[in-house]
Amino acid sequence: MGRKWNNIKEKKAAKDKNTSRIYAKFGREIYVAAKQGEPDPEANQALKIVLERAKTYNVPKSIIDRAIDKAKGGDEENFDELRYEGFGPNGSMLIVDTLTNNVNRTAADVRATFGKNGGNMGVNGSVAYMFDATAVFGIEGKSEDEILEILMESDVDARDISQEEEVVIVYAEPDQFHAVQEAFKNAGITEFTVAELTMIAQNDVTLSADDQEQFEKLVDALEDLEDVQQVYHNVDLG
């Protein structure tokens, strides 16, 4: 369905090239999740999801602990979660999720980045309706049939299961994230190549070589912004 594993993997690999940037973004996201609820992941569902994602990106424990300790210490730095939507070349669509302590700065930065890289900002709702919020898990060393059996035994539903390269990808409703995760952990699966809540396009588009080059510059520029946490899109990068 929707985005294929090679796109998820390519996006992850691209982010891994700049680990300091990724660690900073996770530090902020962990801090916000810990501050909004309990600093204990077992009592804070949002924090638990962030930490599971951080694990797949090999975020050091020192960064995780520092962010949680900052939240425990009563730090008063406040962040707003904002979503921007826009368009790239030739029918490409993007969703940009941000965490910011300066809304005006972030809005101006995102708008300028779209404009400088061949894109255009859209209004709220202009793009998001073409995407589905989805829980995604990637598991190595198991077959599709084995994964399906694990989920069936736990009475957990999945939208889709696919084998892509050496990885089985499970797509589920976002509110099933913890149920899917627990089903796997009860079956002895504790390592995931991907484990996150994401936005998957209902239909992908394929761009020409020139348009794809321009599109990738736009995505890179958006991801380089300090306040941007996630960029989702509908382009098939395979």
UniProtKB/TrEMBL annotation:
GO MF assignments: DNA binding
**Can you tell me which residues the record assigns to a coiled coil?**
none
The record's GO CC annotations read:
cytosol
Where would you say this protein principally sits, based on its record? cytoplasm
- InterPro entries xref list: Integrase-like_N, TACO1_YebC-like_2nd/3rd_dom, TACO1_YebC_N, Transcrip_reg_TACO1-like, Transcrip_reg_TACO1-like_dom3, Transcrip_reg_TACO1_YeeN, YebC-like
Q: Which UniProt keywords apply?
A: Cytoplasm, DNA-binding, Transcription, Transcription regulation
Specify whether Protease is a keyword of the entry: no
What GO biological process terms are annotated to this protein in UniProt? regulation of DNA-templated transcription
* Localization terms from the record: Cytoplasm
The chain positions of domain TACO1/YebC-like second and third read 80-235
PANTHER family xref list: TRANSLATIONAL ACTIVATOR OF CYTOCHROME C OXIDASE 1
Q: What is this protein called?
A: Probable transcriptional regulatory protein SAMN05216389_10714
Q: Which organism is it from?
A: Oceanobacillus limi
